[in-house]
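Per your request, structure below.
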């Protein structure tokens, strides 16, 4: 059960402003339903609905907020979010052992689950999965460039009914800018130029976007370039060896290009073409991998790495919208192709042993399509029926290469066989408006198939796997009064196994262990319930949500047989082992003090554990209680904001007991922001983050660090840092 003290703290934030009696607001019902919020979400139902009319928690972050906050990447985008975090450990990896920090922005954590258990999409196209094998680790967050983003939607809870596999914990939908976002009313051509600097990593960024329209055509081209260095921290040991706590030197650059063209065929139809390309390079001088005397023959004297991320995609879409059509009033179809690759090269100088290299890569090439249809039915009930299909086929490959391979191996080798990964699904959803009730049932059927190729694979027998899942969802929103609108949702979710889990081949006969595939691996499953209420009382709007998520068949690599000898090696295999239970509560409030001043507050708390073989263990991916308090002033010419973030320390009783882990203390951080428009089309943004230069640790980044570690300061968050940008719209 949730702590009563923490539950009361979260609920009181909203209870204090909720109406004492709903009947006091009944007179206002004649003016309409619950006061509509400004934000529109698409991810909750795959149709446009206001966030106060969906049966779950969705937050929408706009491009203007991303720019005002000076966000460089998705970690910055979610810096102040209550129940969403991005893990990015310091770059303290080695050539062939630890992978700490090698994956960059590893992925997004929603309410205690992360990695491939969270669905991430750009314009409806999946972001490639993360992958790890020893010192080789790839993330997902660095496949994105925030300069091309129009909105970011975070959907909490299983999203399988809407999107199929992977949305076990939720879904994050990134939508890119359209030509209309760069054009002002009446313009035939327009755009913007922006330049920014961030002291946190001494990075410069320049972005130029141009759009135009001519008759039936609209088009845009946006390019961005960012160059920077390592992210700062509060460490003070500059030793060029394992004792170092200041960041290892990093040089990176990121190139991004987004282009779109739309043809309006007639008033009801539009055809669009999008291309997107990103290239990110990073060189790291890994001082922290260097040994200290006394040295052995294999001691590392120097380690240099060169990493590269590439993502390219092309998509063609058709949009139809005719409210007067008889059967189908709206239809959207998208065909796409995406090629993404991560390459990681490490060069290690060893004392007297032969120097060695590691040259690893992981790539995903995917082609697919999706079709969504919408029919509006009239009668006794107003009903919007949405239905469609999604299909994708991905070619996923991995390669480990280099010199001086581990004992018993030869390079090059594949950590898993080249695999064709096919996902297909069909769904139907109804949005029924019955008086004050919105009833949203949905049902989806999915099929997945993993077909491996034995070519070049030496890890054993490559096994195929296929399966299916049925994921229903039922949501209800009761617009009882503008001040009090309860809602609830029941939803199921699933995540299909990945190729590296079905087939993971590695043998070290001398050390007495091996790993094998599992043709009987089942998908992970989720059962979720969310109950909440939201509303508006005078100038204050609020929301409260409580959730209970239960997960089954978590996939884990375990020793399944063997004695650990060369004659009888230990056999490792991915199996369905653990179940998990995560529950929590969150509350948010926003107060429009007057036309110029606005205040906001929020708090979130969750608790969870996993269970395997009857033994319960706290989930380390659960974040501590977090509260956010902010005030903002907005004028036509200038504005300012102050944002205070409090995080409770990580309770040692809520850390897995497999090792004695470092438990970060609580912290409070103040961020300040300012913008100024000296002339109509020119905007200056400035931010001072961690204004009091507080030394603190984020649990998401320090998780897994031993309590006995002598380099805990290497895992501290950045100290005081500033960001400034100048934007000109034309």
């Amino acid at each position: 059960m949730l702590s009563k003290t923490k539950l009361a703290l979260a609920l009181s934030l909203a209870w204090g402003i909720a109406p004492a009696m709903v009947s006091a607001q009944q007179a206002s019902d004649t003016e309409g339903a619950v006061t509509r919020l400004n934000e529109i979400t698409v991810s909750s139902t795959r149709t446009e609905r206001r966030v106060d009319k969906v049966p779950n928690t969705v937050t929408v972050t706009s491009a203007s907020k991303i720019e005002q906050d000076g966000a460089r990447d998705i970690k910055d985008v979610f810096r102040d979010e209550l129940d969403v975090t991005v893990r990015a450990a310091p770059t303290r990896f080695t050539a062939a052992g630890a992978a700490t920090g090698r994956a960059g922005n590893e992925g997004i954590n929603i309410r205690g689950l992360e990695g491939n258990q969270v669905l991430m999409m750009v314009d409806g196209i999946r972001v490639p999965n993360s992958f790890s094998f020893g010192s080789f680790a790839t993330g997902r967050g660095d496949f994105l460039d925030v300069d091309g983003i129009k909105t970011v939607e975070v959907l909490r809870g299983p999203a399988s009914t809407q999107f199929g596999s992977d949305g076990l914990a939720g879904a994050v939908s990134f939508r890119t800018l359209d030509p209309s976002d760069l054009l002002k009313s009446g313009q035939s051509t327009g755009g913007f130029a922006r330049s920014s600097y961030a002291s946190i990593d001494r990075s410069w960024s320049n972005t130029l976007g141009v759009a135009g329209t001519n008759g039936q055509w609209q088009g845009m081209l946006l390019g961005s370039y960012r160059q920077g260095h390592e992210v700062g921290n509060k460490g003070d040991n500059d030793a060029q060896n394992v004792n170092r706590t200041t960041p290892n030197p990093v040089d990176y650059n990121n190139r991004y290009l987004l282009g779109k063209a739309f043809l309006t065929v007639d008033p009801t139809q539009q055809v669009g073409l999008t291309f997107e390309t990103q290239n990110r390079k990073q060189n790291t001088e890994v001082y922290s991998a260097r040994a200290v005397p006394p040295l052995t023959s294999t001691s590392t004297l120097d380690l240099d790495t060169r990493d590269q991320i590439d993502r390219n995609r092309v998509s063609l879409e058709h949009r139809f919208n005719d409210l007067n059509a008889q059967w189908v009033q709206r239809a959207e179809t998208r065909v796409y192709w995406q090629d993404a690759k991560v390459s990681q090269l490490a060069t290690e100088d060893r004392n007297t042993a032969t120097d060695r290299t590691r040259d690893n890569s992981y790539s995903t090439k995917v082609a697919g399509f999706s079709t969504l249809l919408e029919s509006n039915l009239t009668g006794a009930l107003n009903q919007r029926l949405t239905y469609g299909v999604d299909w994708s086929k991905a070619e996923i490959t991995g390669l480990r290469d280099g010199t001086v391979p581990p004992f018993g191996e030869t390079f090059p080798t594949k950590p898993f066989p080249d695999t064709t990964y096919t996902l297909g699904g069909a769904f139907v959803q109804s949005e029924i408006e019955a008086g004050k009730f919105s009833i949203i049932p949905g049902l989806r059927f999915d099929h997945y198939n993993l077909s491996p190729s034995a070519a070049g694979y030496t890890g054993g027998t490559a096994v195929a796997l296929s399966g299916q899942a049925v994921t229903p969802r039922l949501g209800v929103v009761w617009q009882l009064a503008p001040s009090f609108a309860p809602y609830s949702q029941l939803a199921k979710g699933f995540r299909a196994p990945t190729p590296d889990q079905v087939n993971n081949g590695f043998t070290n006969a001398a050390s007495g262990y091996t790993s094998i595939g599992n043709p009987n691996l089942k998908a992970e499953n989720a059962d979720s319930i969310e109950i909440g209420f939201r509303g508006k009382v005078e100038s204050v709007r609020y929301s409260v949500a409580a959730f209970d998520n239960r997960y089954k068949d978590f996939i884990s690599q375990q020793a399944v047989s063997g004695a650990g000898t060369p004659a009888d090696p230990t056999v490792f295999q991915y199996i369905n082992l653990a179940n998990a239970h995560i529950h929590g509560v969150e509350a948010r409030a926003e107060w429009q003090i007057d036309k110029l001043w606005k205040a906001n507050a929020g708090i979130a708390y969750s608790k969870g554990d996993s269970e395997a073989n009857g033994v319960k263990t706290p989930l380390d991916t659960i974040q501590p209680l977090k509260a956010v308090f902010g005030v903002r002033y907005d004028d036509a010419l200038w504005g300012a904001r102050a944002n205070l973030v409090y995080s409770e320390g990580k309770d040692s009783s809520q850390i897995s007991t497999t090792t004695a882990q470092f438990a970060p203390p609580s912290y409070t951080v103040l961020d300040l922001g300012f913008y100024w428009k000296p002339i109509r089309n020119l905007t200056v943004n400035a931010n001072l983050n961690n204004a009091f230069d507080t030394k603190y640790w984020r649990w998401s980044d320090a998780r897994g660090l031993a309590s006995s570690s002598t380099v805990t300061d290497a895992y501290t968050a950045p100290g005081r840092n500033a960001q400034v940008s100048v934007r000109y719209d034309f």
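The first strand starts at residue 40 and ends at 41.

Regards,
D.
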